[in-house]
Amino acid sequence: MQTQRLRIAIQKKGRLSKECQELLKRCGVKFNMMGERLVVHSENMPIDLLLVRDDDIPGLIMDGVVDLGVIGENELEEVGLEREARGEPANYIKLRRLDFGGCRLSIAIDKDAEYNGPQDLQGKRIATTYPQLVKRYMDQQGVKFSTCMLNGSVEVAPRAGLADAICDLVSTGATLEANGLKEAEVILRSKAVLIQQTGELSADKQALIERLLTRMQGVIQAKE
Ligand code: ATP
Ligand code: ZN
């Protein structure tokens, strides 16, 4: 369902929301975030913001439901691999990498365990929210393993006896340390990215996207 207004999906609440809203505002998009609305109309441009869970953003783009989205590369790649595995469309255009949401997806193990490389993970059970990315990495390394899928509290899985190791997002490493773990392998370095659906958009929408990108370039460069 095409609309006249450009639809941009952003995270409603979480680590990407504040900086994402800030970036749009700096690009001159005026809007008022009030209440628990799913859709927020810009007051000065033909743009609607869709406020959703970050997990939903890659699918909304890949299904062509929204025009643009801001999402962490970790989530984008995981959903892409998952959809490919199911034979569903997983296409998108990466318009630009943004200057926030930086983190790494890492495998972590007991801080006292000896570690000499990926082969030490052979036969281990790894707790994660990112089974596809872990599988891609372990397949590349030729290491057999099993997973324990968790959508939260991943870092306590080893202590709770649910898994031998974890693969989770890390920024400072403080959470790992607090749970008696150490980083063994970085499998992905991630940032927030701006993506577009691959369907053909109206000339007006495409022109608006170009305008936003030019402004974004200026905003991000000014900060560097
Ligand atoms: P939602 O309710 O939207 O599903 P969430 O809990 O899945 O939120 P957040 O914790 O808000 O997601 O993280 C969103 C994104 O922020 C991550 O997918 C990642 O790209 C990025 N990020 C940056 N630093 C970190 C970090 N230290 N831990 C987790 N995510 C981080
Ligand atoms: Zn999420």
UniProtKB/TrEMBL annotation:
GO terms for cellular component: cytoplasm. Its EC number is 2.4.2.17. Keywords: Amino-acid biosynthesis, ATP-binding, Cytoplasm, Glycosyltransferase, Histidine biosynthesis, Magnesium, Metal-binding, Nucleotide-binding, Transferase. Feedback inhibited by histidine. Coiled coil: none annotated. GO terms for molecular function: ATP binding; ATP phosphoribosyltransferase activity; magnesium ion binding. It catalyses: 1-(5-phospho-beta-D-ribosyl)-ATP + diphosphate = 5-phospho-alpha-D-ribose 1-diphosphate + ATP. It is found in: Cytoplasm. Pathway: Amino-acid biosynthesis; L-histidine biosynthesis; L-histidine from 5-phospho-alpha-D-ribose 1-diphosphate: step 1/9. Its cofactor is Mg(2+). The keyword Cytoplasm applies. GO terms for biological process: L-histidine biosynthetic process. Its main location: cytoplasm. Residues 53-218 form the ATP phosphoribosyltransferase catalytic domain. Belongs to the ATP phosphoribosyltransferase family. Long subfamily. Catalyzes the condensation of ATP and 5-phosphoribose 1-diphosphate to form N'-(5'-phosphoribosyl)-ATP (PR-ATP). Has a crucial role in the pathway because the rate of histidine biosynthesis seems to be controlled primarily by regulation of HisG enzymatic activity. This is ATP phosphoribosyltransferase. It comes from Photobacterium gaetbulicola Gung47. The lineage of its organism: Bacteria, Pseudomonadati, Pseudomonadota, Gammaproteobacteria, Vibrionales. The gene is hisG.
